[in-house]
């Protein structure tokens, strides 16, 4: 199984991700990068806009930084 890992692709992808400025609540470019990586792998994507105002109204909401234009990104492997 480990032989199937493309180490150079993995390192190149990781280097691409860490090169994207994504601190202080500005994660969107990194999220878009990862969505593109996952799509390129044939993963099923779930991408959604996060309603920050709605989250703030939740009694358990807490944050240390304000997020700019937040987005959620998740992926799962396809059946093939």
Q: How would you summarize the topology of this molecule?
A:
Elements: H1 7-18, H2 28-40, E1 44-49, H3 52-56, E2 71-76
Antiparallel strand pairs: 1-2
Helix pairs in contact: 1-2
> Averaged pLDDT, please?
89
Oligomeric state as shown: single chain
The assigned structural class equals alpha+beta
Proportion in helices: 25-40%
Strand order of the largest sheet: 1-2
Order of helices and strands: HHEHE
Q: Compute the gyration radius: what is it? A: 16 Å
Structure description:
With 80 residues, this protein is an alpha+beta fold. It is built from 3 helices and 2 strands; from the N terminus they run ααβαβ. It has helices at residues 7-18, 28-40, 52-56; strands at 44-49, 71-76. It has a two-stranded antiparallel ribbon. Helix 1 (7-18) packs antiparallel against helix 2 (28-40). It is elongated. The protein starts with 6 loop residues before the first helix and ends with a strand. The relative contact order is 0.21. The mean pLDDT is 89.
């Amino acid at each position: 199984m480990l032989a199937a890992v493309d180490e150079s692709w993995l390192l190149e992808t990781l280097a691409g991700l860490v090169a994207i400025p994504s601190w202080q609540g500005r994660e969107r470019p990194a999220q878009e990068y990862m969505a593109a990586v996952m799509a390129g792998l044939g993963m099923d994507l779930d991408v959604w806009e996060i309603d920050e105002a709605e989250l703030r109204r939740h009694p358990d909401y807490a944050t240390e930084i304000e997020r700019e234009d937040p987005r959620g990104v998740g992926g799962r492997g396809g059946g093939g």
